[in-house]
Write a structure and sequence with these properties.
- The chain has 353 residues and is α+β, with helices and mostly antiparallel strands.
- The protein is built from 8 helices and 15 strands.
- It has helices at 2-9, 61-74, 87-101, 105-108, 167-192, 199-202, 281-286, 340-351; strands spanning 43-48, 53-55, 77-81, 118-120, 139-143, 210-218, 230-235, 241-246, 252-255, 263-267, 275-279, 295-299, 305-313, 319-320, 338-339.
- β9 and β10 form a beta hairpin.
- α2 crosses α5 and α3 (87-101) crosses α5.
- It starts with a helix and ends with a helix.
Length: 353
């Protein structure tokens, strides 16, 4: 009986499907996550979600693309395996991350966030505007596009090499490696939209893309005054795709129907060695809501949690407008064209108000 229950919880591999689902999804973009939306919703739990698993080592690119499309239409979240990022490198990133977050607060605050880079303490971010709490429980560290230190155009803040001799090089290597994985996923997404595999390259979205690595730490114990608060309150990601790896501690939940009342939240289970990938708002806009930018959050589980999120977003000047294959006379574009940087900057600024 126990083995049967475990099998039921185990994520499935998506069955390739080439038919397109209707673009007429029953919710507007960002209905529950945009700044200014204050209507509180009831919530319900439905256990674990059965997310598709996409094997990036598959030789059948069309079948893999169909699997990615199905995942983006139905869930907005999926797993990728055989992604090419070495497990030892991932372990090194977690070790360096934990070492930094273990520092006294006064040491961490020496690298407090500037230019959206550096350390963000607990309660400094509020991802859901209507949250009754001052801010979310998590602390984090942002690393943005890495400039040339010789030209003094690197806006990132780095811990001292004396205390963390391998920190910077570990993060740089991880960013370069996971960027390659992200580009492969975007090629599959393009194929799944009946576009050229190099579509996002050809429109300039991946010419100096806006990419950020975010190290995250969620506390194990919370004060009584924080009862009901979230490690990360409900939100959707802002850009194209996010590649997430966790330490295996649960807490991540998704809500596939933003407008449902009560909202139905489902646990995302951990798969050793797999990335969790989710779609962001700009990809939802590109596809006219054919693909969904899914609402998600992290709940407190009474145990420390570490994760590493890589946000792969278009070049700042990329104009995001509806892809022709995703609209028609009966279903015209739902959103006006917008520059990637303008949209993402607006969303980031609202998080820190």
């Amino acid at each position: 009986m126990k083995k049967q229950q475990e099998a039921q919880r185990r994520p499935r591999h998506a069955t390739p499907r080439h038919s397109r689902k209707s673009a007429a999804l029953p919710f507007p973009l960002q209905a529950a996550a945009q700044p200014g939306v204050t209507r509180r919703r009831r919530s319900a739990m439905a256990g674990g979600v059965d997310l598709p698993v996409v094997d990036l080592a598959s030789q059948d690119l069309r079948a893999a693309a169909a699997s990615v499309r199905q995942a983006c239409v139905e869930h907005g979240f999926f797993y990728v395996t055989n992604h090419g990022v070495d497990g030892a490198l991932i372990e090194a990133v977690f070790a360096e991350s934990k070492g930094f977050f273990d520092l006294p607060m006064e040491e961490k605050m020496k690298l407090q966030r500037r230019n959206h880079r550096g350390y963000t303490p607990p309660y400094a971010e509020k991802l859901h505007a209507s949250s009754e709490f001052v801010g979310d429980l998590k602390e984090s560290f942002y690393i943005g596009p890495i400039g040339d230190s010789d030209l003094q155009n690197d806006l990132n803040q780095w811990p001292s090499e004396e205390c963390f001799p391998s920190w910077k090089e570990t993060m740089k290597w991880y960013i370069a490696t996971v960027l390659d994985t992200g580009k492969r996923i975007l090629s599959l997404i393009a194929l799944g939209l009946d576009l050229d595999a190099e579509f996002f390259h050809k429109i300039g979205a991946l010419d100096c893309p806006s990419m950020f690595l975010r190290l995250l730490h969620y506390p194990g114990e919370v004060n009584e005054s924080d009862s009901g608060n979230y490690g990360a309150s409900a939100h959707s990601d802002y850009g194209a795709i996010t590649l997430l790896v966790t330490d295996g501690t649960p807490g991540l939940q998704i809500c596939r129907e933003k407008d449902r009342d009560p909202q139905l939240w489902e646990d995302v289970h951990h798969i050793d060695g797999a990335f969790i990938v989710n779609i962001g708002d700009l990809l939802e806009r590109w596809t006219n809501c054919v693909f969904r930018s899914t609402l998600h959050r992290v709940v407190a589980v009474g145990k420390e949690r570490y994760s590493v999120a890589f946000f792969l977003d278009p070049n700042y000047d990329t104009v995001v407008q509806c892809i022709e294959s995703c609209c028609s006379e009966a279903d015209p574009p739902r959103f006006p064209p917008i520059r990637s940087g303008e949209y993402i900057t607006g969303r980031i600024n609202s998080t820190y108000k």
